[in-house]
Amino acid sequence: MSINTAHANNGVLIHAGEYILLHSDSVSMEFSGQDNDLFRGSKQGRVYLTSHRMIFNSKKPSDVMQSFSAPFVALSDVEIEQPVFGANYIKGKVRAQPNGNYVGEVKFKLYFKSGGAIEYGQALLRAAKTAQSNFHRGGLAGDDPPPYAPAGAWHEAPPPAYQPPPGYYGWLPQHDAFSGPAPNTVFISDNPPPYPGIRTSSTQYYYYPNCYQVARPFCFIPIPVIYP
Q1: Strand 154-156 to strand 43-50: parallel, antiparallel, or no bridges (unpaired)?
Q2: Which one-letter DSSP state was computed for residue 103?
Q3: Quick one: which of 19, 32, 54, 119 has the fewest CB in 10 Å?
Q4: Are the C-beta atoms of 89 and 78 separated by less than 8 Å?
Q5: Is 225 helix (H, G, I), strand (E, B) or coil?
Q6: Which ranges constitute the DSSP H helices of 43-170?
Q7: Is 85 exposed, middle or buried (0-12, 13-18, 19+ CB in 10 A)?
């Protein structure tokens, strides 16, 4: 995970070859487990599910946390909560990436004000599980995820540059809470992702020497399986 590395010009900054799968414009996030001003208070913004990570962008220009990037390989203990009272939400833990502007691990809760928590959570769990299985050079349990690498040069991107190929992600859920990003709000770096995503071809972008695959734990709730 890295802080303030996934935003640009009031929009989201993604890697070359990274696709935006889901986007919700009305969410809030809360963090715990870190004594750091970056994580204090409830944060209002928008969330993206990409082919490689979960990204949160704040809507408040004065917030010290403008963006939160959580690669799938850094996530653990992800669960979907359905309280009797209050909105459904997703919770989990995410480990810091080296050079990611914080250290250690932080817990998060992601609330969807317009619904879609279960659908987003199901897609997140599936994508994260797939990325973990692609992490064939992934480290030992507890190892840091691949380090954050500066985005380098970046540019505004039209939708064809970040939309997934037609039919490839047929398992993605449909919900009124999900919409495409607003025009002129998606920017793409010239650099590829430094960590694996849900396509095995992404493994060319990372390398962990002298390590072997150990999947991080994920907690699944009994919800229907969606097949591609």
Answers
A1: unpaired
A2: -
A3: 32
A4: no
A5: coil
A6: 117-134
A7: exposed
